[in-house]
Amino acid sequence: MQGSVAYLGAYVNPSVNLYNFLNHAKHQRIMKSPARKPQKRVHKPHLSTTSDARVVRTREKIRKVFLNLLETSPLSEITVREICAKASLNEVTFYRHYQTKECLLEEIAADEVRQLVELTLPVFNAEDTAAAAITLCTYVDNHRKLWKTLFVGGAAESVRRTLIDLSRKVSHAYMAEEGWPPKDVAVSIFVASTVELLTWWLQQEVPTSISEVAQIFEGFIVTPALNAAVDHKHGISS
Q: How far apart are CA 88 and CA 7, in angstroms?
């Protein structure tokens, strides 16, 4: 009855009663509507962290095809469509795993660069720098195709930047904050020199032996860096 009165009143004086009528109707709908139960949010892990066998196989297939393409083409010329065609996947599947080809590269580079950094920077603290150099060169040689792709292929510049950036972030564990030369410069020079040496080695048709490359690394990169720090320290103390 009350709703009917409001309804009729709207015709008598629309400017006054129409607002009341609409509010009344809205109130009636709210009162009749059943209360909604709160929905539980289901957490779905990112595909990069899942251990599902199918997901792992798909990601490995994408990474393998992408690395093969980088051996012959610069990153700018590789398309997601081309990756999917060679991996026998549709583009929807690719985008479930990676937002862009750059994201794919970043993941691959980050995984591999992290391992390389863990072998490179500890040389500064190693009691036996020769043995540490052998360990580093052996690791690179065991993954020769991968590192040739990363250092020589179409993503070389991006990988180098990633390597230097990550090295700077973790260098505090291996280098003094107030050493000489300044840590940021020392890391950049050390990593750049290491990359140049490894790139030269990886491009050889008949590779120089692991022991010889390790000797170059220790003698021309590691030892001069350590000596520079010692000489500066002695210069200050004297």
A: 65
Closest listed residue to residue 212, CA positions, set 201, 221, 203? 201
Per residue in 47-71, pLDDT (tens digit) is: 555 668 899 999 999 999 998 998 8
- How far is the C-alpha of 101 from the C-alpha of 1, rounded, in Å? 66
CATH number, position 92:
1.10.10.60
- Please give the Cα distance from 58 to 183 (Å, whole number): 41
Please tell me the distance from the alpha carbon of residue 49 to that of residue 47, in angstroms, as a whole number.
5
Q: Which helix (H) or strand (E) holds 232?
A: helix 223-237
Spatial distance between the Cα atoms of 132 and 118, rounded to a whole number of angstroms: 11
Same domain, 94 and 122: no
| pTM to 2 decimal places | 0.63
Q: Coil, strand, or helix at residue 74? A: strand
Looking at the structure, tell me whether residues 219 and 156 fall in a common domain: yes
* 3 state SS of 114: helix
CB neighbours (10 Å) of residue 232? 13
CA-CA distance, 200 to 151, in Å (whole number)? 10
State the virtual CA torsion across 182, 193, 150, 157 in degrees, nearest 10.
60
Q: Round to whole Å and give the CA distance between 54 and 64.
A: 15
For 172-225, how does the pLDDT look when each residue is reduced to its tens digit (9 = 90+)?
666 666 666 677 888 888 889 999 999 999 999 999 999 999 999 999 998 887
Number of domains in the chain: 3
